[in-house]
């Protein structure tokens, strides 16, 4: 019978092998998180390892703002953004998958306006939002530069873009990669918070 140490060791080995395999696969195939994992993405466990209030605060969300979440999925974070923006603000949750948005609609909490479209053609006018944020989404988009340019277009001058990444995610990029992508899209870095495990880069539209 294996000891606790041996069990822990093999769990780590399996996780590492899985991460290697899935990361190699993601280099070849880019696709959004499938809707069947929406329950996990909107779970208390995920909110424990990625606290919504912390990530939204890092992303620059404040009371009274007009806010867009790109890739809201099954709405793990958007209800918290609604509370943070308050009744004076407005929050829109945006996703490419109708199945994910349907899961949002089933929630019994206060929800944002929900919009289905793709990140290359955001259905909003220029200079609409005070803030745009995304959580473990940017690297899932096959052409992240085009998506970032769209985020820049719909942001007001001086508006904030928050990009949060999580080490366990198979598309996880290093901080310097996220920073370079944002700067190449015309943003300036406003702050970097968090560590290697879970970080947020906050940009501003000049």
UniProtKB/TrEMBL annotation:
- Any idea where the Methyltransferase type domain is? 68-161
The root-end lineage is: Archaea, Methanobacteriati, Methanobacteriota, Stenosarchaea group, Methanomicrobia
- Is Membrane included in the keywords of this UniProt record? yes
Q: Which SUPFAM superfamilies is this protein grouped with?
A: S-adenosyl-L-methionine-dependent methyltransferases (SSF53335)
Record's keyword annotation contains Chaperone: no
For this chain, one GO molecular function annotation is: S-adenosylmethionine-dependent methyltransferase activity
The species this protein was found in: Methanolacinia petrolearia (strain DSM 11571 / OCM 486 / SEBR 4847) (Methanoplanus petrolearius)
Protein keywords: Membrane, Methyltransferase, Transferase, Transmembrane, Transmembrane helix
Pfam families, A to Z: Methyltransf_11
From what superkingdom does this record's organism come? Archaea
InterPro entries reported in the protein's UniProt record: Methyltransf_11, SAM-dependent_MTases_sf
- Tell me which Gene Ontology terms the entry assigns under biological process: methylation
Could you list the residue ranges that cross the membrane?
Answer: 7-25
- The name this protein carries in UniProt is Methyltransferase type 11
């Amino acid at each position: 019978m294996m000891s606790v140490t041996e069990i822990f060791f093999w769990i780590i080995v399996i996780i590492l092998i899985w991460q290697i395999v899935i990361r190699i696969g993601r280099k070849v195939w880019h696709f959004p998180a499938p809707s069947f994992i929406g329950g996990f993405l909107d779970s208390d466990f995920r909110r424990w390892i990625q606290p919504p209030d912390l990530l939204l605060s890092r992303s620059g969300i404040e009371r009274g703002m007009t806010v867009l979440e790109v890739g809201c999925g099954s709405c793990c974070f958007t209800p918290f953004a609604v509370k943070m923006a308050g009744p004076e603000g407005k929050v829109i949750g945006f996703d490419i998958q109708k199945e994910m948005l349907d899961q949002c609609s089933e929630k019994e909490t206060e929800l944002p306006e929900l919009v289905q479209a793709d990140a290359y053609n955001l259905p909003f006018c220029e200079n609409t939002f005070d803030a745009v944020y995304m959580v473990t989404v940017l690297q899932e988009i096959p052409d992240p530069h085009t998506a970032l340019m769209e985020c820049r277009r719909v942001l007001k001058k001086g508006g904030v873009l928050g990009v949060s990444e999580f080490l366990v995610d198979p598309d996880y990029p290093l901080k310097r990669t996220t920073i370079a992508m944002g700067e190449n899209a015309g943003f300036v870095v406003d702050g970097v918070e968090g560590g290697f495990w879970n970080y947020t880069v906050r940009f501003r539209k000049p």
